Amino acid sequence: MTTEIEPRSSATSEEPPVPGDLVTVLTTQHDRARALLADLRESVAIVAELTEHMAGPFRELVELLATHEAAEETVVYPRLKTELQEGRLAAQCMAEEHEVKQLLAKLEKMAPAFFDFPEAMARFEDKLVAHAEHEERAVFPILEDRVPPAERHELAGDFLYAAARAPSHAHAHSPESAFGNAILGPVLATIDRVRDATHHEPRARDRRP
Fold first, then answer.
1. Residues 41, 2, 114, 196, Cα dihedral to 10°
2. pLDDT 10s digits, 106-122
């Protein structure tokens, strides 16, 4: 769990030293995560209310249009092209219909994730908060009792240094070991930063001359 952080200072850098110790840094980030969850909770509740009323009509709309367009292509347009000799009109309507079908298919593919997001977010929050509380209850006291303050201070720098170079997106199959993160972490981080840069790059029409 990470927030915006600065890379670890080098010996020649003018950056100030990392404040506090490892437990302080971890606790601060836990608290920030809880604050972000609280900010999201109200918005997600609104989305949940909206999706509850949207799912049924949307599924009915998909079924109606899918069967409607298929039947038109089978019955209406062949007759329009042949017996009624309106081939150009039929072609125009079929081109429009094709575009509509493509967009509807895209929406139908997106819909499950959209409708399931509030419930998934609630499960995620429960698991995340339980994990943070477990660390604070079981791990942090051990770090405070058994690791000297000077070493905790140094570990705080190591932690922020590693976090600054870690992937910035969740990867379901990312490594969990120190060795795996050392090997694959920089690769995933590079991919994520390219992805972020591409996503945030302004579109051509939005760029100023």
1. 140
2. 999 999 888 999 999 99
